Amino acid sequence: MRYGDLTYLEIKELIQAGAVALVPTGCTEQQGPHLPVDNDTYWITQVAEGISLAAQELDGILSLVLPTLPFGPTPEHRNYGSGFIDLPQELHQQVIYAVLCSLADQGFRLILLLLGCGQHQLKPTVERFNAAYTERAFAQIATLPLFDIWCRCADPTIPEGHADSFTTSISLFLRYESVRRELIRNPHMTEVDWNDPDLDFSRYSSTGVIGDPTHASAELGARLWAQVVSAGVDELADFIQEKQPAALLPEYE
């Protein structure tokens, strides 16, 4: 259910049928020596499309997946010198706000954002939108329990953070050929201060990797992926049950 594949008339029909808009936000930044710089954009696109397909097949939930924005704020990666497109935080928020307004103005009542980067600061943007579009539309940021999923599927003592075994396992499962497997190494980085307002990964890791990717495998990636999609479907269904107007709920009751 890709928004960009449809005509405006087909989109209008799906809006009238109560389809939820799924808005994935990606970024372009270094992912260590072994993963391509589009990893976060690719990953969150697959998450959004996987959730959309599974939700329709399992629960009859209609959704439309917007094209993923491939750029966002990524100042913590600039000092690696290449592989980044760094949008100013304010510009990124303005772009996402305009996207949300455009969706509401064409009739979408529910909008779920799926963030492909942990450094995307979009909560104020969503709050501003919800205040402006009260009783017309409602947006929410998905809170996929990725760390909990990792702890269920793998050893929670393995260091994680960026281009780690979680990310690398998913990549090995979804697009094996994109992973430079011979370059997977434990970077032995120092502990990261995630609350640093001037976060700079190069202070902690010479390779760009935060965590230990050497425990990754396609088999582990398959288990992680199944749980990510399942959690996303559950969150989408809960979102609809809580926020969708009753007139559009017959198939979910």
Main sheet attributes: strand count, strand direction, barrel closure: 4 strands, parallel
Number of helices: 7
Structural shape? globular
CATH superfamily: Creatininase
Element-level helix/strand string: HEHEHEHEHHH
Low-confidence runs (pLDDT<50, min 5 residues)? 246-253
- β-sheet strand percentage: 5-15%
What do we call the CATH topology?
Rossmann fold
CATH architecture: 3-Layer(aba) Sandwich
The average pLDDT value, as a whole number, equals: 94
CATH C-level class: Alpha Beta
Strand order of the largest sheet: 2-1-3-4
Task: Indicate the percent of residues in helices.
Answer: 25-40%
**Number of E-state strands:** 4
Rg from alpha-carbon coordinates: 19 Å
Walkthrough of the structure:
The protein is an alpha/beta fold and 253 residues long. It has a single domain (3-252), classed as Creatininase (Rossmann fold). It contains seven helices and four strands; from the N terminus they run αβαβαβαβααα. It has helices at 8-16, 39-59, 89-105, 123-132, 146-153, 165-174, 218-243; strands at 20-25, 63-65, 110-115, 138-141. Strands 2-1-3-4 form a four-stranded parallel β-sheet, sandwiched between helices. Strand 3, helix 4 and strand 4 (138-141) form a beta-alpha-beta unit. Helix 6 crosses helix 7 (218-243). It is globular and about 50 Å long. Mean pLDDT is 94; it is low at 246-253.
